[in-house]
């Protein structure tokens, strides 16, 4: 975790929610507040989990609030997700190591392993979807950049053609 960040809790997507402290000037509409914000006299300005809006930012500046805590997700790799899963299974196995195989508690162990597997699968699916979304956004950004470069090249070409062409003569007509 970087400076100004603290662990908030595990996230379904295999990442962690961090509370990152930023200056109000850095706040962007759409971010999620990780902590409530109150004035010095205790009056609540915004609740934890609220979305930051332009109006809230202006209010915080007027109220001389310097910093806020926003939620930020730290992504995890497939290997990290699998490592967490493997450690969970090891913990379950260690907890049930002395239980006889015929015990009814073995059904509980199987259920815990099943749930851990489902969480792992959800986390991997989330990560794959997030990577696909990021790839699509990158492709769209590249296409937009290429289109802009093509427009700039066409504008430059049109500008050089206009400079090379002789100026059109203005017709002089007598006004009546």
Task: Describe this protein's structure.
With 176 residues, this protein is of the alpha+beta class. It folds into two domains: 5-74, Molybdopterin biosynthesis moea protein, domain 2, CATH 3.90.105; 78-162. It is 49% helix and 15% strand. It contains three helices and five strands. The chain has helices spanning 54-62, 78-95, 105-164, and strands spanning 5-10, 16-23, 37-38, 44-46, 67-74. The chain has a three-stranded antiparallel β-sheet with strand order 1-2-5, with no helix packed on it. A hairpin with a 5-residue loop joins strand 3 (37-38) and strand 4 (44-46). The chain is flat, with a radius of gyration of 29 Å. Residues 1-14 have low confidence and may be disordered.
Q: What is this structure, in a nutshell?
A:
The protein is built from three helices and five strands; from the N terminus they run ββββαβαα. It has helices at residues 54-62, 78-95, 105-164, and strands at residues 5-10, 16-23, 37-38, 44-46, 67-74.
